[in-house]
Write a structure and sequence with these properties.
5 helices, 2 strands, 117 residues
Length: 117
C-alpha cells in the first residue's frame, strides 16, 4: 500500500487520472500538520478561515506559531479527533477556545506591527 510522504496515511488511486493521492490533501489539510513548514499565519488568513468556519484549523495554526510543545500536541489531538469524527465535542471546543484566545492577541499585535513598518 502506498503511503503519503507528508502524513503517512494510505493513499488512494484516483478514478479519472489514475494517480495516487492523499485524502488529507484534498481539503488542503497538510498545511495544518506539525511537520509542515509554511509561512506564518497572518491576520488576513485567520479572518478568512473564520469566515469559512475553520475554527479548529485556526486554533491549530495559532498554537503552532505561538504555543508550547505540550499545547501543540493537545491541539493536534483535538484537530485529529475533530477531522475523524466530523464534529467537535464540547470539552474539546472549550479547550480549543481557550488556546485560540490565548494567542489571538499575539497575532493581532504582530499584524499591527507589520502595518506600521
Amino acid at each position: 500500500m502506498t503511503k503519503c510522504k507528508v502524513c503517512n496515511k494510505p493513499m488512494r488511486m484516483g478514478r479519472i487520472k489514475k494517480k495516487w493521492f492523499c485524502t488529507n490533501n484534498i481539503y488542503n489539510w497538510h498545511k495544518y500538520l506539525p511537520e509542515c513548514t509554511r509561512p506564518r499565519l497572518t491576520l488576513e488568513e485567520y479572518l478568512k478561515n473564520e469566515n469559512i468556519n475553520y475554527h479548529t484549523e485556526n486554533a491549530l495554526l495559532l498554537v503552532k506559531q505561538y504555543g508550547t510543545k505540550k499545547e501543540l500536541e493537545e491541539m493536534i489531538k483535538i484537530f485529529n479527533n475533530h477531522m475523524e469524527r466530523g464534529h467537535i465535542l464540547s470539552e474539546e471546543q472549550k479547550e480549543r477556545y481557550e488556546l485560540s484566545n490565548k494567542y489571538y492577541q499575539n497575532l493581532v499585535k504582530e499584524s499591527v506591527n507589520l502595518t506600521n513598518v
